[in-house]
């Protein structure tokens, strides 16, 4: 690890702690978070040159506090001064160390009054310690766009009167569910990209795992937090095997399982074993359990499909959705044969959420291929390739169609982009 | 999700626009300003540009490695691209809502196209 990435790691670790310290002392989340962001930027510039201070956290708190006071005094921030000046007195008992502070901060960043993209941006900055520029690069949008999402999010929090404290117990599980959704979205954003700013994308995945690990540490008894962590670990374990050097996706059945990350798999399975024994089962735990069944199969042929089907049946009852329906149908086909899968697919397709979706065509293509109807399978692959928004998926589907014989694959000017 | 919102206009719409009283033209331009401000502050705006007159366009073709260019105007095109928005928003429904706020939607036509992504799940 180079000095630069070591400092970066330390800054990300300290960022939420410093935000929490300032908010506890000065009250105003919006300005405090801005001040911390500037302190982090200063540290990222100065520390590699001047050396790391003896007390990095103290340094950040001092610099951020100074910056906050400058902001309040500054004429440019006159309006902000009027709103904030009264808040500069520490609230009573605010300095009391609270174990739940990092959870409170996460819950605030994932406040239900915010849109999902805003929750993601604010969480990555305030809790993850990423800069606006880093977030913008990872999501392939301009820095100003992310900057606006963050400032809009903070305005909404302020306008909605949300405070820096834990929500009442009756709201807590719903609020935690929102946090889990944001963390999972960050993970997927990083995991499913196979090109573009690939390095930064991998960093998003690592960041999501790091934050979920922290959440699990604060909420060790929350089965879904543990389930989500296990799901991320078990999914990320496949990363080395899931793309070819040219960026093409390797389907699960064709992956070289020897390249899966055993350590991540072991950790994920251990988490699942502990969690499933303990309490009520939720959607993340079920998805993690499905990933664990795949991870335990030495090769694709030995996959325990009946067990996977059982888990999808449960998931379909607990948290139904179009993708659960489709994945369940694949498990049906693998357990009871492709004909039954095709029948269930035809029935499922009448649902508005699925009709015309490219994944329906992709699953149909796959099942038709299993029945041996090459021509119909090829047509379905072509249809799916045309309708997907994902370039790697399109390449994969077109290559499946091509292996099934000649036919119109559809010229695509951008598929080599 | 990113969406490209393409604004097409036609000669008829342009003629109508030019005949509008100044106050109504100003209102149309204000609608654009308001839309731009809303999209910027919501964090949905990525980029937006208004395109110069199609008579300034140049068509480029490469055949057998030879680049050929033709200058406009291209009168055969009934609907002409006049500008675009690249936005990032939650759903195509939201992108459609944005498209409907574009004044040209009342005279010309506005098209919403999802942008291809490099995201993909192993299947």
Descriptive notes:
The complex is a heterodimer of chains A (417) and B (123). Chain A is mainly alpha-helical and 417 residues long. Chain A contains 20 helices and no strands. Among the domains of chain A are: 3-85, no CATH class; 208-303. In chain A, helix 11 (223-236) packs parallel to helix 14, helix 13 crosses helix 14 and helix 16 (322-336) packs antiparallel against helix 17 (338-348). Chain A is elongated and about 75 Å long. Residues 88-97 and 409-417 of chain A have low confidence and may be disordered. Chain B starts with a strand and ends in a 9-residue tail after the last strand. In chain B, strands 2-5-1-6 form a four-stranded antiparallel beta sheet. In chain B, strands 3-4 form a two-stranded antiparallel sheet. Chain B has one domain (2-114): Alpha-Beta Plaits. With 123 residues, chain B is α+β, with helices and mostly antiparallel strands. In chain B, 20% of the residues are buried. The chains are: A mainly alpha (417), B alpha+beta (123). Chain A binds chain B through residues 115-118, 121, 141-142, 144-150, 152, 189, 192-196, 238, 242, 249-252, 255, 362, 366, 389-394, 396, 414, and chain B through 1-2, 40-47, 88, 90, 114-123.
